[in-house]
Amino acid sequence: METSNLTFFIIKGISDNPDLQPLIFLMVLIIYLFSLCGNLTIIILVFLDSPLHTPMYFFLCNLSIMDLSSITTSLHKVLFIFITGNNIIYFPACITQFYIFGSISVCQLFILAAMGYDRYVAICNPLRYQMVMNQIVCVLLATLCWVIGFLEVLPTTWLLSKLSCYRSNEINHFFCDIVPLLAITCSDTSVLELYLCTGGFLIAGLIPFNLTMISYIFIVMTILKIRSSTGRRKAIFTCSSHLTVVILLYLTLFCQYLTPVSTEKLGAKKFSSLINTAAVPVLNPLIYSLKNKDVKSALERNLKTCKSVISML
Fold this sequence. Notes:
The protein is mainly alpha-helical. Helices cover 77% and strands 4% of the residues. The chain has eleven helices and five strands; from the N terminus they run ββααβααααββααααα.
């Protein structure tokens, strides 16, 4: 039955099976806590540890803030539903949730492009690295990433908020994302889909992807010119963590938004969407901490400092 001027939606959540609810709640809670602890650790270490006051870790700190914002925006409603049993989300809150999540997703792509440029300068032009990647440049690049992200999603959000006709008020998902919202609307979405396929895809997808790939083309060309195997390994290790995160993020976004899905398959796609939404925020801190000696050394130093302070008390 078609309805107009909806004031609220019903979030169906991850599963309707009551037997799975405790397990799903525990899984979502563990995912969120792992992400919270991991990303907060990265942020605190970058702020407190002076050896980490470099462009690479400045951008990593921004990425961790984005990861925290992204997973909190997408999963907080899931936890709220499990705790309170209230699965109603009002229309303005739903649109706001989509806007924040979408903006943060775009910010992540651009901050990874900025990190790719940082790795390009470090490997291809190391003698000028300190001059090129100075504090002002880093702050401007990070600010630009945040501004582009929150501006790029505005047209999509505005067009989405103008959809007034819906076949149902049940969102077959665990948060207000554009795919399940488009699946239940009966309004004309041609303008919205046109923007998503042109401006949205170009700005949010192709531009950061191409910038990142161009950086790595030059990086690979420089690595191939290095004669010593030790120098090659060192250069590859310098950008391996970033490249791993880039591949992970683009793969998850591709699976989440660019694979075809029908209304009937939305329920089955929720579990993969949960993995996609939570994978990057959880794995980013692990990738950068397990593969990075600087982060591990900073963690050890700060843990020793904490133990010393505790013992003095």
